[in-house]
Amino acid sequence: MSARTRTRPRRLGPLRKGGTLLAAAALALLPAATARADGIRTQQWGLGALNTAEAWQSTRGAGVTVAVLDTGVDDQHPDLADNVLPGKDMIGFGAGRGDRPWARHGTAMAGIIAGHGHGSGNDEGVLGIAPEAKILPVRVILEDGDKSRKKARSTRSGALAEGIRWATDHGADVINMSLGDDSESAHADATEDAAVQYALKKGVVVVASAGNGGEEGDHISYPAAYPGVIAVAAVDRYGDRAPFSTRRWYATVSAPGKDIVIADPDREYYRGWGTSAASAFVSGAVALVRSAHPNLRPAQIKRLLEDTARNAPDGGRDDSRGYGLVDPAAAIEEGGNLGPGKPTPAGYADQYFGSGPDADPDDSAAWLGPLAGSLGAVCLVAAVVLWRGRPDAY
């Protein structure tokens, strides 16, 4: 199995005291100087951009479990201690604790979602968007530098689908997939799609990164393009689309994805970029919504994020940023008007998606009928027709 993780530690620039960003390494991680706590918190601009403080007046994610399908998570990291549940290794081999290519990407994503900091008053380290949520780590890919990665590509190609089903059956409320294949040869896999639909039918919200191919052809990325997935594009601190962020019909919402402070198993802190980070922010936002409104179905939560997003593009939606910047506080407030049996709010742009991604998973054929009639729908039909074989990477 091959993996294209969306926020790659090998492409990050380290933090220095005071927040000066060194030149990002193209293919290697530069030696990092330890960042001071006050420097880290002042640089976590994504929390402010998403109105996190307002959302925290309602909840900090208590009672919600977010499965992080990734390279593993360091459950001993001080910013994540006691927030990480016993997980599952779907690969079964590769680097382990103490090895450099172990759990770096997954730990970074877990910190964005549910980091609680450390030290006196937890005022040091990374603070996640849902610091009281629990992380369920599921290892479905290996780090780029893992010597066993080639073996995993050829022997564990089904790990992602297995991981989705395992997480669904072991208490996940939200599944975060900051990974995907956005190569030119990428195509959908029926086993993965079936696993996503299984999760949705069981009430699990599924989130994935839209892809980092914005400067390399904007190729379709899976699992982001599967029906029902909340696909997340990346924006910078000014709300503009990050140049690397893939532009495709499946983009649901956007979130911070550039100059994001992340935690690492080496106990240093770095700045990273990628739609991986954006996906993690949205998974944390979903955790807040689900904590406040535990009975809402995945389709309702997806619709809430769309209808309450801020800084919407002209026309309400585009392929660059979806419906705009996710706003968990607004989604929590609007969610109070909904219930399991009530309709989702108006404003959904059927001309882009038909009923596909938001169809009730109990109706297995509901998304097929309304697809015709728009360019976005035609693209989705084409993607479905081409669902053969396995992706070369996740």
Kindly describe this structure.
This protein has helices at residues 37-43, 45-49, 52-55, 104-114, 149-155, 159-169, 190-201, 275-292, 298-308, 328-335, 350-353, 375-385; strands spanning 13-14, 65-70, 88-89, 116-118, 124-127, 134-139, 174-177, 205-209, 230-235, 251-256, 260-263, 269-272. The chain has 394 residues and is an alpha/beta fold. Helices cover 28% and strands 13% of the residues. The strands form three sheets. A seven-stranded parallel β-sheet has the order 3-6-2-7-8-9-10, with helices on both faces. A three-stranded antiparallel β-sheet has the order 1-12-11. Helix 6 packs parallel to helix 7 and helix 9 packs across helix 10. Residues 332-355 are annotated as: Disordered. Belongs to the peptidase S8 family.
Listing every helix as H and every strand as E from the N terminus to the C terminus, the arrangement reads EHHHEEHEEEHHEHEEEEEHHHHH
Annotated CATH topology: Rossmann fold
Point out poorly predicted stretches.
1-35, 344-394
Largest sheet, spatial ordering of strands: 3-6-2-7-8-9-10
CATH class wording = Alpha Beta
Distance N terminus to C terminus? Answer: 7 Å
Give the strand content. 5-15%
Number of domains: 1
Provide the gyration radius in Å: 19 Å
- Work out the number of β strands: 12
What is the CATH architecture annotation?
3-Layer(aba) Sandwich
Counting DSSP H or I runs of 4 or more residues, the number of helices is 12
Oligomer: single chain
- Major pleated sheet: 7 strands, parallel
Mean pLDDT: 82
- Gross morphology is globular
**Derived structural class:** alpha/beta
* CATH superfamily membership: Peptidase S8/S53 domain
> How much helical structure, as a percent, in the residues?
25-40%
Protein name: Type VII secretion-associated serine protease mycosin
Subcellular location: Cell membrane
Membrane topology: Single-pass membrane protein
GO molecular function: peptidase activity
